[in-house]
Amino acid sequence: MFQYHCLNPIAEKGLGLFDEEYKKSEDLQECDAVLVRSAKMHDMELPESVKVIARAGAGVNNIPVKDCAEKGVVVFNTPGANANGVKELVLAGMLLASRDIVGGIEWVAKEKDQEDIDKLAEKQKKQFAGCEIMGKKLGIIGLGAIGAMVANAASALGMEVYGYDPYISIDAAWNLSRTIKHIKSLDEIYSQCDYITIHVPLLDSTKEMINKEALDKMKDGVVLLNFARDLLVDEDALIEALDNGKVKKYVTDFANHTVAGHKGILVTPHLGASTEESEENCAVMAVKEVRDFLENGNIKNS
Ligand code: MLT
């Protein structure tokens, strides 16, 4: 949630916070600007007064961007403001998929009342043995702020990093992250990498890009990470790939009925940007963008 001091500078101009509690467009009557995090705005009727919407986050798939463009409503996002928060959760996801930290913790919680838990633990720990990520190949699909940060961090942990992004040149990718050794085609990422992480926006062209055809090209036992958007992955094809061993683990930040509870899936409830730092960075960036637009007419993503 945004701090009041962030809102103050433009409060006179009228600014609405749109979140799950603010379902009705009446809540936004008279507002010039709307700040939104993850609430879906597609079904709401936007009051005439709204001139600008700022998404406190990178993805804008919860905002009807096309309708906004037709009505002349400016839409901002906050690129990079939460990238470090997401990067850290991706790293945690890679480690959780490689070491059975969750299984070990659950075992201790279950057996905590056993007097000889230490002896029991020595006997049981074999079942929680894992593997190391150092030396493994990581494929990063999408080399924006998050992808580049993941590349640098994974490289520092000793991984061999491959990157793919159709929208940036090899030089640009190299400048973003000096640790990407090769920029390869998607097929090469699929066929060579032990870990694959997706960092692309949800667009018509990227929807279900990880489908059966893509999964079939991947190495047996690949670990797939999706902290971008759930609809990038065809979840039926994914479940099949998990059940036949093609995918060893799917780590995702998007909980739903299909993925929750499957033993090959580690799922968190969209926590990537849920850190004090990321929330503050996004809020401040969004408010600055909105203020600069309302006060100076500037349309500039920070
Ligand atoms: C993003 O698009 O950056 C995230 O969805 C932000 C969030 O978790 O709210």
Mean pLDDT: 89
Low-confidence stretches: 1-13
Q: Give the helix proportion (percent range).
A: 25-40%
Q: What top-tier CATH class of the largest domain fits best?
A: Alpha Beta
Return the CATH architecture of the largest domain: 3-Layer(aba) Sandwich
Small molecules bound: D-malate
Q: Radius of gyration, rounded? A: 22 Å
Number of helices: 11
C-alpha end-to-end distance? 20 Å
Let me know the CATH homologous superfamily of the largest domain.
NAD(P)-binding Rossmann-like Domain
Strand order of the largest sheet: 7-6-5-8-9-10-11
Oligomeric description of these chains: single chain
Using DSSP, what is the number of strands? Answer: 11
- Structural classification: alpha/beta
- Give the ordered list of helices and strands: HEEEHEHHHEHEHEHEHEHEEH
Shape type: globular
In short:
The chain is an alpha/beta fold. The protein has helices spanning 4-11, 65-71, 83-98, 101-111, 117-124, 145-156, 170-176, 186-192, 212-217, 235-243, 276-296, and strands at residues 15-18, 33-36, 52-55, 74-76, 137-141, 160-164, 180-183, 195-198, 222-226, 247-252, 265-267. It has two domains: 4-79 and 276-296, NAD(P)-binding Rossmann-like Domain (Rossmann fold, 3-Layer(aba) Sandwich); 83-267, Rossmann fold (3-Layer(aba) Sandwich), CATH 3.40.50.720.
